[in-house]
Amino acid sequence: MIVSDGVFSMDGDVTPLPEIINLANKYDAIVLLDECHATGFFGKTGRGTEEYFGIKGSVHLINSTLGKAMGGAMGGYTTGPKAIIDLLRQKSRPYLFSNSLAPAVVGSSLKAVQLLMKDSKHAESLLRKTTIFRTRMKNLGFKVAGNSQHPICPVMLGNAKLTTEFANRLLEFGIYAIGFSYPVVPKDKPRIRIQISAAHSEEDIEKCIEAFSKVQKLLNV
């Protein structure tokens, strides 16, 4: 079995799924993909990493969340061949020893899936805002890591003390953003992790960029 995230949460990097599929085919392996940071918003219509690469249906097992972009706040799911799902129902300890989800969570999650199946306007809106943020930030001289289409936008500042101070200064301009440093991320890769949402307006995005620009000048970055 080959197990991978579809998108890695701290860097916004996308796994090389086509290469993984080729490797699995070569060695007759099963592929399990964790799509918690892709479900509902990544790919042209929000179907995730498979859709992004244009190879939908190539992964054997997908594990994902009903929280994050799906808005359910808790719970998750696994999809795959019936025989494997039946086995998990009998042998998976987290499934066996977890309480059932509250009906309200199930209902809201089903509605989120229905909205996603109906149209892709939210995914398209998110991609547009992500592109605006990444492009404008790079024009200001910031290094924004991760895949160019993914809304996890780590702004790499290279110094842990600077990252903390920068995040604190952003708050003075109405932007709440968290600075991450070691041991959460490697010692040489502290960053402020910005996450764009479809719920953000383009004015919100511009306000965030403007705040980064102001703090950049204040701290002479």
Map the helices and strands.
Elements: E1 2-5, E2 7-8, E3 13-14, H1 17-27, E4 31-34, H2 49-53, E5 61-65, E6 76-79, H3 82-91, H4 93-96, H5 103-118, H6 121-139, E7 143-144, E8 152-156, H7 160-172, E9 179-180, E10 191-195, H8 202-218
Parallel strand pairs: 1-4, 4-5
Antiparallel strand pairs: 2-3, 5-6, 7-8, 8-10, 9-10
Q: What is the number of beta strands?
A: 10
Shape: globular
Number of domains: 2
- CATH structural class of the largest domain: Alpha Beta
Distance separating the two termini: 45 Å
CATH fold naming of the largest domain: Aspartate Aminotransferase, domain 2
* Element string (H = helix, E = strand): EEEHEHEEHHHHEEHEEH
Summary keywords:
221 residues, alpha+beta, Aspartate Aminotransferase, domain 2, Aspartate Aminotransferase, domain 1, 2 domains, four-stranded antiparallel beta sheet, 10 strands, 43% helix, 16% strand, globular, Glycine C-acetyltransferase domain protein, acyltransferase activity, pyridoxal phosphate binding, acyltransferase, transferase
